[in-house]
Amino acid sequence: MRGKLVSGKAILFLCISCFFAGTLFTCHIWTHPSNHGSESLAIRHDCDHKRKLIEGQPGDVNEEISKTHQAIQSLDKAISTLEMEISATRTQNGELSRQSASNESLQKAFVVIGINTAFSSKKRRDSIRETWLPSGKQLMELEKKKGIVIRFVIGHSATPGGVLDEAIDEEQAEHKDFLRLDHVEGYHELSTKTRLYFSLAVSMWDAEFYVKVDDDVHLNLGMLVNTLAKYRSRPRVYIGCMKSGPVLYQKGVKYHEPEHWKFGEEGNKYFRHATGQIYAISKDLANYISINWPILHRYANEDVSLGSWLLGLEVEHVDDRSMCCGTPPDCEWKAQMGNLCVAAFDWSCSGICKSVERMKAIHSSCGEGDAAVWNVDL
């Protein structure tokens, strides 16, 4: 065809023929995939999916939008949680820094012992002053020379300035052995009282340990200090007689737990915690309570509350059975064998039964001697 002109119709026909030939060839390739068939199918599937969305499948579009919205919400929640944690950490670090600065001006001590007492317990306090608690100048001397601070812990009555508060003021003027809390006294407020005691004690004394003991328990101060001294190099120590009693869900019984449902099925037991007659915590745990006390939950029973505050922390639970000896003959024969008890009381009474009448006899049989605490080397 050299030298001859080709008409426009022929060129158009040739182009159309090539187009259809290419289309047939392409379809043949898609119908009979080569080694890359799986990739082609994946591409085709993706294209079909996008085509369906474009062609107006409202259900699929809504589903994609919903998934995207959920992902954004999850990210927002995660970011919010991180911001809260960062804020809490900054606040706590600030509190710890202020606490550290404040501690430099506080009176140093080895241990602060708070004796939990009530307005109606004057005779109990007197029985303790006559036995294991030094009084007057000796109490102040024990504080200065040994770093052992001991105070009866009490709040105020429902009518501040009334007869009950005046009686405590007179007793304080005579003995100078009270730590007054900004707290209304009441049996069902013991968890709050415990929080406030640790918070106030930390703000007044920079001690290595803080102890709470009931006013119907016999205590050997020298043995207590020697026991605590074994753990002075360990962080976050919680010392006492550990137990795990049943959660009492029946209304009207002593130690009834209104929030029993939080512990699972009826008949379940509490987590391990120190019995409430006496226990000790190290400085860092007392500081933790002091910083966080507004948000620490209070259960019906004070010892359970303390155990719950420390449950989620890296805390060493020390189960020391010398802190829960029975009254004579139990603590008596142990003393005769050279195994003096830190504390003695009756489990049946959650303290010494008829403690006012029996405290002197127990001190005579199970006491370490009045000089023991003065001979402790700290």
Describe this structure in words.
This protein is an alpha/beta fold and 378 residues long. Helix content is 48%, strand content 16%. The protein contains twelve helices and nine strands. The chain has helices at residues 8-31, 37-54, 58-103, 122-129, 137-146, 163-175, 190-204, 221-229, 283-292, 302-311, 330-336, 355-366; strands spanning 107-116, 148-156, 178-184, 205-214, 218-219, 237-243, 273-282, 316-319, 343-344. A seven-stranded mixed sheet has the order 3-2-1-4-7-6-8, with helices on both faces. β2 (148-156), α6 (163-175) and β3 form a beta-alpha-beta unit. The protein is elongated, with a radius of gyration of 37 Å. Mean pLDDT is 83; it is low at 28-37 and 39-43.
Keywords:
elongated; 12 helices; two-stranded antiparallel sheet; alpha/beta; 378 residues; seven-stranded mixed β-sheet
Question: Please, how many helices?
Answer: 12
Pick out the low-confidence regions. 28-37, 39-43
What Rg do the Cα atoms give?
A: 37 Å
Strand order of the largest sheet: 3-2-1-4-7-6-8
